[in-house]
TrEMBL record:
The lineage of its organism: Eukaryota, Fungi, Dikarya, Ascomycota, Pezizomycotina. This is C2H2-type domain-containing protein.
């Protein structure tokens, strides 16, 4: 069992993730060479006719490598800290894992699609795809290098590492909040960090001046808007961070955050909206023993924050739904009255009065929820808990 756990831990080392990125780059380069070999005659004709650069000077072929700087920083960290640097920390490993995923999805797979194309004329790379692959490759190298340097700085400074406090809220940048409120999704203009570099994807936020790597995601066409509307208000000396509006999880990597949003949109098993399910009574007993016996104040605080978060998520649609229900109810009432009058039967005024009173009571309850949602939800939770406790007592009494 210990050998299995040791192997699992080594699979999650940062050094192995970097090695996987290097191997994926090599696979991409080999696949690209197959593409060039397949249309060798066409390429030589283009070189002779139009004076294009040969394969040795191809910028795409040069970009399909991890780079010497990353190998140097890995060697420096290995000499200074040994296996501790190779193992890495969770922050660096999360960033590099996201870059490994991007290398697979945005670099290797498009090249393999072209290398396996049966028609040789379709294997010539268009300029848009070349630009996207070179931009992704440069971004992967830059992000990996920055993550390894930051990990080396963290490990060289000795300090007591504490677990972070539970994150119950996030503070978005005011520019991000303004984009979130724009229901028409109008385009917005920002400046690039390097305007003359076509392969640099970083842009500057007009409010906080943080550099945001606008990574392209094949499953999210609106990736740029998602990144800008989800970046947090940065602290002094902090890089760009992104947060999910559903689970408040923060991400240091733009592509890692986009993949998190993509998994949530398609409803996969990795989605943050999936709830825990207990397939056996033993797991249910472990859950009860682990969480029910916690501090009452902590549980109430977490419950209050969770309820307020869910209410904030629904609050944007509550007024619209309320107005639609009002219009739909009164229009339905008028249609029903007119239909009964056409048939020749007189409507029962007592029944309509009861329905109107119930409707007014419901609207009053909705206004109460809108004014103070937390207290109303807490009262509902208390009543449900009391009913559950009474039901549990009756069940145990019946069993006894």
């Amino acid at each position: 069992m210990s050998n299995t756990s040791d192997a699992w831990e080594k699979d999650n080392w940062t050094a192995f993730a970097v090695w996987d990125i290097d191997r994926t780059f090599q696979q991409s380069y080999d696949a690209y060479k197959q593409v060039v070999k397949k249309n060798k005659k066409i390429r030589h004709r283009l070189v002779e006719c139009f004076g294009l650069r040969p394969t040795e000077d191809d910028e795409l072929a040069k970009s399909l490598t991890l780079g010497r700087k990353i190998h140097d920083i890995m060697e420096t960290g290995r000499n200074a800290l040994g296996s501790r640097f190779e193992k890495g920390d969770s922050t660096c490993h999360a960033i590099i894992s996201a870059q490994l995923l991007r290398t697979h999805q945005e670099i290797l797979i498009p090249i393999l699609d072209y290398s396996l194309a049966p028609n040789p004329s379709k294997t010539i790379f268009p300029d848009t795809l070349k630009t996207a692959i070179i931009t992704a490759a440069k971004s992967v190298r830059r992000t990996t290098l920055h993550a390894l340097r930051a990990q080396l700085d963290r490990m060289r400074t000795w300090h007591l590492s504490l677990l972070p406090l539970p994150r119950l809220s996030v503070t978005f940048c005011p520019y991000a909040a303004a984009i979130q409120k724009d229901s028409r999704k109008r385009p917005f203009v920002t400046k690039k960090v390097k305007p003359h570099d076509r392969y640099d994807e970083r842009e500057i936020c007009p409010h906080c001046y943080i550099h945001i790597a606008v990574s392209a995601h094949s499953g999210l066409p609106d990736a740029r808007r998602i990144l800008f509307q989800s970046h947090l208000q940065p602290q002094l000396g902090q890089d760009a961070k992104f947060a999910c509006e559903s689970c408040y999880k923060e991400f240091d990597s733009s592509y890692g955050f986009l993949d998190h949003v993509f998994q949530r949109e398609i409803g996969s098993e990795r989605s943050c909206l999936k709830r825990w399910t207990f397939s056996s009574p033993d797991l249910h007993q472990v859950y009860r023993s682990s969480y029910v016996g916690s501090e009452k104040t902590v549980v109430e605080a977490c419950l209050k924050k969770c309820l307020s978060r869910e209410v904030r998520r629904m609050k944007t649609l509550s007024k619209m739904e309320l107005e639609d229900e009002k219009k739909g109810y009164y229009s339905l009432s008028s249609k029903a009255l007119s239909s009964r009058t056409l048939v020749g039967s007189v409507p029962e005024e007592k029944d309509w009065d009861i329905e109107i009173q119930e409707r007014e009571r419901y609207l009053k309850q909705r206004r109460r929820v809108e004014r103070d949602p937390t207290s109303f939800l807490f009262s509902s939770v208390r009543s449900s808990v009391r009913s559950g406790i009474h039901g549990l007592g009756r069940e145990s009494y019946s069993r006894g």
